[in-house]
Amino acid sequence: MKQVDLYTDGACSGNPGAGGWGAILIYKGVEKELSGGEASTTNNRMEIYAVIAGLDCLKERCKVNVYSDSAYTVNAFTEGWIYGWIKNGWKKADGKPVANAELWQRLYNKTLEHEVNFIKVKGHADNEYNNRCDALARAAIKKLEG
């Protein structure tokens, strides 16, 4: 099975506001950069969407290490929150609906197609790929803001 690294980041100008996401897929030293955005969104939505977009590019089942500086995205899987949300019909422990449930559902379904390992990285530090993803996300926002 192919081993792929996926670095992701999301950003927002205002929260909510114009948002962007960036992702870099790396396979055997070959890098593919992706980015996009939405005119009115939140930082958390862009963080989740970046992972979905990266996983969408994979044409076959892969082992994927997802590197993200979003504790929200990483912890949903590493802390098992998402399994509780599914069990509770996409409701949090307090009974309120899970924010961004449709994106979480898409991401969860994508994780079933691959062997995915989520790894938290420190944002805006010395991780060159995380910094590049941040730059891609911010460039997507600039395009939206014209």
From TrEMBL:
Kindly give the CDD domains that the UniProt entry links to this protein. RNase_HI_prokaryote_like
Give the UniProt keywords, A-Z.
Answer: Cytoplasm, Endonuclease, Hydrolase, Magnesium, Metal-binding, Nuclease
Instruction: State its Enzyme Commission number(s).
Output: 3.1.26.4
This protein's cofactor list reads:
Mg(2+)
Mitochondrion: is it a keyword of this entry? Answer: no
Name a GO CC annotation attached to this entry: cytoplasm
RNase H type-1 domain ranges (all copies) = 1-142
Which molecular function GO terms apply here? magnesium ion binding; nucleic acid binding; RNA-DNA hybrid ribonuclease activity
Pfam families with a match to the protein in the record: RNase_H
Swiss-Prot/TrEMBL catalytic activity:
Endonucleolytic cleavage to 5'-phosphomonoester
Q: Which GO terms describe its biological process?
A: DNA replication, removal of RNA primer
Presence of keyword Metal-binding: yes
Residues annotated to bind Mg(2+) 2: 9, 134
Q: What are the subcellular locations of this protein?
A: Cytoplasm
Chain positions recorded as Mg(2+) 1 binding sites: 9, 47, 69
- Gene3D superfamilies recorded for this chain? Ribonuclease H-like superfamily/Ribonuclease H
Q: What class of enzyme is it?
A: hydrolase
Q: Paste the cofactor note.
A: Binds 1 Mg(2+) ion per subunit. May bind a second metal ion at a regulatory site, or after substrate binding.
Mind telling me which NCBIfam families this protein's record contains?
PRK00203.1
Q: How does it assemble?
A: Monomer.
Protein function: Endonuclease that specifically degrades the RNA of RNA-DNA hybrids.
Q: Which family does it belong to?
A: Belongs to the RNase H family.
Q: Which HAMAP family match?
A: RNase_H
What name is this protein filed under?
A: Ribonuclease H
Q: Say which species the protein is native to.
A: Candidatus Borkfalkia avistercoris
Task: Identify the coding gene.
Answer: rnhA
